[in-house]
Amino acid sequence: MAVRLDATDRKILVELQRDADQSLDEIARNVGSSKTPVWNRIRKMRDAGVIRQTTVLLDPDALGLEACFFVLIRTSEHEAEWQRRFLEALRARPEVLEAHRLAGDIDYILKVQVANARAYDTFYQALISEVRVHNVTALLSMEVIKSTTSLPLKA
Amino acid sequence: MAVRLDATDRKILVELQRDADQSLDEIARNVGSSKTPVWNRIRKMRDAGVIRQTTVLLDPDALGLEACFFVLIRTSEHEAEWQRRFLEALRARPEVLEAHRLAGDIDYILKVQVANARAYDTFYQALISEVRVHNVTALLSMEVIKSTTSLPLKA
DNA sequence: CACCATTCAGGATATTTTCCTATATTGCAG
DNA sequence: CTGCAATATAGGAAAATATCCTGAATGGTG
């Protein structure tokens, strides 16, 4: 079900992306409305799937996950069965935070968050032993310049 | 202030990452405790910065942001002033969801979420007109295989 | 075993969510 | 422009929840 979002909806989403812990009254004040319409709009956007999840963002360093790798993968395999097993392997591994199938030269990109280079190597060895890939390049993040889950909304 | 996380803390974090809308009683039930210790532990982890933010994850497609690009950037510039301006430019642009400085051959990687290829080109032109970069490769995501903000926690 | 510090469960109160109702607003046909 | 129907709104009542307090339980230590 597609939902047409108006300016108030978008303001609410901006507030929720900024801080989902706010009370309805606070959000209502920030968007210039009252709690009932805000509540109805949030419920509607939840039901429509515009809002997918409320969650908490953790500090990777505080959890000892100090190494972030972007992994570029080329493969010569393109059969359905191989792909199914590859996707399953990625979905099953919690250190894989993102995985995209790409257009062009490089077939897949992964974002992998692990404790250190050794942990990455363990992950890498396990992955390539499970599914054959042609060429893998790992890019190691030295510094997170920016990291947000807030999608841009035309206010 | 570093916090030592025990098994209960990690269970709480797993629950909060899964669904931060749960009531304290629910979380307490799920981790086998009662609401007071859960509440105290959450507050402590918030204060310590382990929990950085409570937020809402939105569906990019529902907002008309149907194109996700990973952008690989090489530059010959490595002066402090250039870098400062480059970081500022990235932080100021809301379509840049992630930006990392990398080790090795490629200097930076960005994750950019936009409406379509045209919008990406607009972003790209604006960026290179603002700061000089040597070489830019854009990888277009065809399919999101996995996308999570949940960091792996040894339960 | 006794002491201290820490963590716990359960309860009291303040706050918030959830839903209802009556009013206001908007879009639209005549 | 006017009146009607559909929709959105503000405010309030009841239920649920967060927040904080108290006293009991626990675990490590001399």
From TrEMBL, chains A, B:
Keywords: DNA-binding, Transcription, Transcription regulation. Gene3D superfamilies: 3.30.70.920, Winged helix-like DNA-binding domain superfamily/Winged helix DNA-binding domain (1.10.10.10). One of its GO terms (biological process) is regulation of DNA-templated transcription. It comes from the Bacteria. InterPro entries: ArsR-like_HTH (IPR011991), AsnC-type_HTH_dom (IPR000485), Dimeric_a/b-barrel (IPR011008), Tscrpt_reg_AsnC-like (IPR019888), Tscrpt_reg_AsnC/Lrp_C (IPR019887), Tscrpt_reg_HTH_AsnC-type_CS (IPR019885), WH-like_DNA-bd_sf (IPR036388), WH_DNA-bd_sf (IPR036390). Residues 5-66 form the HTH asnC-type domain. Pfam families: AsnC_trans_reg, HTH_24. GO terms for cellular component: cytosol. GO terms for molecular function: sequence-specific DNA binding. PANTHER family: DNA-BINDING TRANSCRIPTIONAL ACTIVATOR DECR, LEUCINE-RESPONSIVE REGULATORY PROTEIN. This is Lrp/AsnC family transcriptional regulator. It comes from Tropicimonas isoalkanivorans.
